Amino acid sequence: MQSRTLVKVSFILFILSCAFLWPGISFGAKKILVGSTSASSSHYGYFVAVAQVINKNVPGLEASVVETGATADNLRRFSRRQIDIGMVTTNTQSEAYYGRALYQKNPIKTKLLWVYVIAPQNVVVRKDSGVMKLSDLNGKRFNAGIKGSASEQTSQAVFKALNIQPVWVPGSTGDIVTAIKDNRVVGYVKSGAGLGLDASSRDIATLTPIRLISLDRQQEAIIERDFPDLLVVDVPAGAAGKDIGAYKTWGFGVACAAGLDMDEQTAYRIVKAICEDKSIQAAAFPDVKGADLVQMTLKYASSPLHPGAIKYFKEKGAVIPARLIEK
Hints:
- About 5% of the residues have low confidence.
- The chain is an alpha/beta fold.
- It folds into 2 domains: 164 residues, 3-Layer(aba) Sandwich (D-Maltodextrin-Binding Protein, domain 2); 133 residues, 3-Layer(aba) Sandwich (D-Maltodextrin-Binding Protein, domain 2).
- Helix 2 links the parallel strand 1 and strand 2.
- It is built from 12 helices and 10 strands.
- Strands 1, 2, 3, 4, 5, 6, 7, 8, 9 and 10 form a 10-stranded mixed beta sheet that branches.
- The protein is 39% helix and 19% strand.
């Protein structure tokens, strides 16, 4: 009996010494998976920062980031319970929640936690492509976004509504960036990092001059009429680069959502940590520096918020619009 007691005591002392020597080790922590996007995207870096905030400031949770195909892929993963929280665009997440567009026969229910940035959908082309307006893309080899992503789905729907028919070239962001540099594809649609260019677009522009294509007034009117979940974004001169003038394009909010399995208290603790972080997210994704995530969420979200998010927002004195409360 004494030997068994000695073994037990020794084991407990070993565990305690591990916790002392390696304080980052979390024994018994609940693991959560964070669905992100392509590792070449600036938004991937943002979700790495989200995991860091959670691991630092939410005791009992251990977050790990999974590289994915962005919103559409993340929604499929939510439906299979393969991720716990993840990146979504407000328009596609809303369509999936309410069973609209591509999700009419297969709604996918998730709840928004917070919106962190507005993402203009930049139509980026090689400057030597001869493409000056969207209609010039008819018959040109062009990429609509990461295969299976919300950007791809939305871009193809927008181009169809505008009666423009490029030759669609599918592929990952890395593949398409290489193809644009090699002049095998004239350009692509890529979410901006706020009003600035995404990391992959900046990579292309380093040695390959680019042009950003603007909507005209008629195209703007069609988008506002046919796509109520989309925004028309005015990007001022210089925001996307010192040599790039003002332009208009469609866009949406980029957010983090949770699966329906996440309880209210866990969601509340995550949202509180994210909204009160002042440094980690901004270091990874400068467009969130100084952003009021509560007000941004209330303004741009278009489907119900998670009860945990509502609890935190109310603590901060926010009035929750009826459209963001599940009936």
